[in-house]
Amino acid sequence: MHIAILSRNSSLYSTSRLYGTAKKRGHDVEIIDHLKCDIVIEQDNPKIYYKSKRLDYLDAIIPRIGASVTFYGAAVVRQFEMMEVFSAVHSQALVRSRDKLRSLQLLASSGVGLPKTVFTNYSKEVKKLIESVGGAPLIVKLLEGTQGHGVVLGPTKKASESIIEAFHAMKARVIVQEFIEESKGSDIRAFVVDGKVVGAMKRQGKEGEFRSNLHQGGTGTLIKLTKAERNAALTAAQAMDLQIAGVDMLQSDRGPLILEVNSSPGLEGIEKATEKDIAAKVIEYVEKAVEERKRNPSRKKKAKKHA
Ligand code: ADP
What we know:
Blueprint: E1 2-6, H1 13-24, E2 28-32, E3 37-40, E4 47-50, E5 53-54, E6 60-63, H2 70-82, E7 86-87, H3 91-97, H4 100-110, E8 117-119, H5 126-132, E9 138-142, E10 151-154, H6 157-169, E11 174-178, E12 186-193, E13 196-204, E14 219-222, H7 227-239, E15 244-252, E16 255-262, H8 268-274, H9 278-295, H10 298-306
Parallel strand pairs: 1-2, 1-6, 6-7
Antiparallel strand pairs: 3-4, 4-5, 8-11, 9-10, 9-11, 12-13, 12-15, 13-14, 15-16
The site of adenosine-5'-diphosphate (ADP) has 21 residues, from strand 9, strand 15 and strand 16.
């Protein structure tokens, strides 16, 4: 099989693990920088060139698109879909997963638990806003933030008001969320592949830090999920139409609460914490999906229409 990993940096842990694993399993693999792809649009003849080479021989792509380049990255993925190349992440699902508000709306309608959340268009009614998530302490999140940047704890009503007003004054959109104190600076990352949780870890923020992101100094350890946590992870991934997903959730007194669903989940933290070969699970899924499409070509057409 010809597989391309769409990634800007071949030395990233996830990229090199996927590359090495696919190679070991006998595939022709290349790493393609999606920002260096040229998309040629013409009637019924979609093409992609990469450094002047035409990419017309690929069976599958595995997008690893960073949040800052979602727009162009998704366009490249969409073009591959038009060319009937299997993508491990649908372009639509990728774009949707990058929109925090839309994701929360979709997740809410799927019935999974969520922290109480408010989003407004720079409302002047800041006091009301604070009350509607149950008062302080609360969490304010920049809509555009990733890896824990732009996630702020408002310890009191007064401080929360100032934080929200400051963001509004900067024309930065935020969501305001109830603070789940009982999660004690930890969260759970469940890695879902093809309708199964293939690994899960608990991340604990460093001393005195409510954010558990590994990028903020948190540490990950293996955890066995409860049935409710496993179900929440699978429902969330399905609601987002992601076959490969990193589902983040908080443990609360009222059960698991989904924080977000990541469409390019990193492999390093989860493989180290679980000592599992998650990269192999991803490649196995891609192999299976491409085989299925070969046996049933109408699926290809459906995928193209879906794009
Ligand atoms: P990002 O997408 O930037 O990682 P998150 O929404 O995942 O932002 O928040 C980062 C971290 O902050 C989470 O992993 C979690 O540990 C903590 N956190 C986020 N929201 C809440 C909340 N409502 N209550 C308690 N802790 C939270």
